[in-house]
Specification:
This protein is of the alpha/beta class. The chain is built from 4 helices and 6 strands; from the N terminus they run E-H-E-H-E-H-E-H-E-E. A 6-stranded parallel beta sheet has the order 1-2-3-4-5-6. Helix 2 packs parallel to helix 3. It is globular, with a radius of gyration of 15 Å. The two termini are 15 Å apart.
Length: 155
């Protein structure tokens, strides 16, 4: 069993909280990765978001990938209406920017989104973090990490 901390970054999140968690996780010897929920609607915004993320990570040894999540907000997100081509391009631009800064990049999503909302053939060079809440995933594509629940705790 391996434990990791994937920090959830949102543009309006307090940076001191992020810094606190990264610092203490690394100090405890826990590998750290980053998860970013995007609202980019084009590649320019995706590059801007990725640049912000790498700037926040620059002072730390991030040992796990930096993930982009392009899932929707139930119709209320500004990127919810993107087509597959644009959503894939946003993911590619984010990931390429992350990797140009020396980090490993990845895509986080549920099975349905990986199957229907992204062109995974164009994202095959990146780490895939599958979220599928069941005992055994039925996703047929390749993935590196599997999240089988949205609950849990560490004591």
């Amino acid at each position: 069993f391996q434990f990791r901390v994937n920090l959830v970054l949102r543009q309006n999140q307090q940076i001191d909280i992020v810094n606190h968690y990264i610092f203490h996780a690394l100090r405890a010897g826990i590998p750290v990765g980053v998860y970013f929920f995007t609202q980019a609607v084009d590649v320019v915004e995706a590059v801007e978001e990725a640049s912000m993320v790498t700037a926040l990570c620059r002072d730390y040894k991030i040992t796990y990938p930096v993930f982009i999540d392009v899932e929707g907000l139930g119709g209320s997100g500004r990127a919810d209406g993107l087509d597959v081509e644009t959503r894939t391009a946003v993911s590619q631009a984010f990931c390429a920017t992350i990797e140009s800064e020396g980090y490993r990049a990845g895509v986080y999503s549920s099975r349905n989104w990986l199957n229907q909302m992204l062109d995974m053939d164009k994202l095959k060079d990146y780490v895939v973090w599958l979220a599928e809440y069941r005992d055994v995933p039925i996703y047929q594509g390749y993935y590196h990490m599997w999240q089988y629940t949205s609950g849990g705790s560490v004591k």
